[in-house]
Amino acid sequence: DQQVKQNSPSLSVQEGRISILNCDYTNSMFDYFLWYKKYPAEGPTFLISISSIKDKNEDGRFTVFLNKSAKHLSLHIVPSQPGDSAVYFCAASALRGGNQFYFGTGTSLTVIP
Amino acid sequence: DVKVTQSSRYLVKRTGEKVFLECVQDMDHENMFWYRQDPGLGLRLIYFSYDVKMKEKGDIPEGYSVSREKKERFSLILESASTNQTSMYLCASSPSGGNQPQHFGDGTRLSIL
Q: Given this model, what pLDDT does residue B1 score?
């Protein structure tokens, strides 16, 4: 059973606009969430994280929002750039679960110049 | 920067062969992981290890085994390769303790003919 879900397989956005990628989870024990970015023929690269004690974390153009009551997180990219075109995975873990992460199925973002 | 190196980027093997995928990390991380990535399924955990000579099954261990004789090296073994094991295999490592991102290698694209 998929504990972390990304319901949008793909997303297209114009350069300069905001990209919003969504992720839902089912396990209320999850307390640490990450976003990874993956280019073709490369491994996933860590992008940004958030722990459950916060509801927002920013790093430059990237912001992650966490809504614990809805078991939902989102990644905002502003402004979007063509180099942001990649597959984005969200992942979640529970502190008591050691360092095992559960990954979503990924969203392929295309930023159109 | 953390470096996770997978021995082969592309590998072609035949059904029934025993296949070894090697992974080495250079940051003295305690935790190491093997995933496979398939379209529409995201990253699925095969095996992980918290220490030398220790291993834990992930979500899809059937048909695989692992070996961790040294801290920096984690090997994935396909005992008798089958066509449904054709996939992208990703190795990752992370420090001990919770809430730490995993660092990935560039992956091995394995084809079983």
A: 67
Compute the nearest-CA separation of A44 from chain B (Å): 6
pLDDT tens sequence across B44-66: 999 999 989 889 999 899 999 99
Measured between alpha carbons, how far is A58 from B70 in angstroms, rounded to an integer?
37
Burial label for A10, CB within 10 Å (0-12, 13-18, 19+), is exposed
Subunit contact A43:B50, Cβ cutoff 8 A: no
Q: Is the minimum CB–CB distance between B1 and chain A shorter than 8 Å?
A: no
Angle at A61 between CA A59 and CA A67, to 5 degrees: 65
Q: CB-based contact (8 Å) between A21 and chain B?
A: no
All residues of chain A having their beta carbon less than 8 Å from the beta carbon of residue B46 are: none
Asked if residue A87 lies in contact with residue A73, where contact means CB atoms within 8 angstroms, the answer is: no
